[in-house]
Amino acid sequence: MTTAEPTASIAQGATTRDLTADPARFAREILDPIRAVVGERGVITDRAAMQPMMVAWRDNWNGRVPLVVMPATTEQMAAVVAICARTNTPIVPQGGNTGLTGAGQPHGDDSEIVVSTRRMNRIREIDLANDTITVDAGVVLQVIQETARANGRLFPLSLGAEGSCQIGGNLSTNAGGVQALRYGTARALVAGLEVVLPDGQIWDGLRGLRKDNAGYDLKQIFIGAEGTLGIITAATLKLLPLPKASATAFLATPSPATAVSWLRRAKSSLGDSITTVELMERRCLDVAIKHNASIRDPLPTRHDWYLLVEVADQSTHDALEAHLLSALEAGLDGGELVDGTVASSAEQAAALWRIREGTPEGQRLEGASYKHDVSVPISKVAQFIEEANGALETRFPGLRSFAFGHLGDGNIHYNPLQAEGGDGSVWQSYLPEVNQIVHDIVAKLGGSITAEHGIGRLRIGEVERYKSDVEMMMMRKLKNCFDPYNIMNPGKLLTRARLSPGTAG
Question: Which cofactors are required for activity (predicted)?
Fold first, then answer.
């Protein structure tokens, strides 16, 4: 890779060359060559037109760049990246801009350009004999789900933003979602990738194989890398049989510990038919109901904790529902459950899911909250919630517990709320201390401070506290191998990412 003498990187906290400091040079070396590759439809330079791509969906990040580029093909993407490599121009890859940690957000100093995959939206091939679908990185997740379903197959990755997130971003963050218990995270659903490397070369790994033991599994390097090692431009994804029946239940349980006990029982009786087991505490229902008039409490009596359970398989609906009811009755007899209801129609099932989907929005409207996307072994979920609640209540009296998430894979969204009626700005100032208290407990229990949302900008200052020196060294060496001048998404995932060529890390 040939490049000009590199400037210091954003990730090092140093000043990076302002791309707009010399407009004539910027136009001559970057804008005009890129426009020649992608055409007028592929560039945006108007600040107002770029603004929706500069603003984070949830947090307060607001970027500023001189240029957004939207290649339409892999070849165009490769040519654009090659221009950026020659001119040492930092790139922020962006998909649907629905991430929750700022990985797709540019910084606010005109020091980068955004390269969007939104025009790369083709379904390239469906191979039903191989049970795979090959798609461009910019294809919206819901489109992939619907295309699979129309062909009698299931693509099981499912999350709240599926109507707008793009598959390239899902893979770059290794998205999890509500069905990871049964089907795994995005990483488990990929058969092959196509990637543009930081020097503009194209790696075509769209092989669609279930078995390939000829060396390193290179696709896994780019999944979860948050665009720091290259830009995913296409993926060959695994399809599964479309379930013939499903059933949904809403269950009340005394505590997280009893919820874990029932899950263990349910796995024995329901097996692989369990797709989702979501845990919610009572306050989650309260704020969802408070801020959404269409949500109703499905049970006649208030309880402390709840489970939203979905099962699906190839049997009949009656048989599947009977098995679910049997697991419910066994939980009631064993004291792990205290009440429950099974949806009798698709409409009732959708109403139960609205509770879970309305929880994050209700939380947002309650004032300052401390968002933690953490995972611990399933056996440690109850201990984590108990210890975190106790530590925070001692340090910050009045802080309200607020926990929900994917019990089936140990991923809890632990998002305590400010004291009711308190000053939100004051409570927000406690964020660093709250984060450390929570994450120290997670680390003690052998967990991760980010289960499915990634590091991005949100956790970049914390990751080194919870990873070993050896692990950080390996990650930095990998980054330096692929991107020694740190033009790929600088200031995300890794601090001090750029090394001089040839250094060992």
Answer: FAD
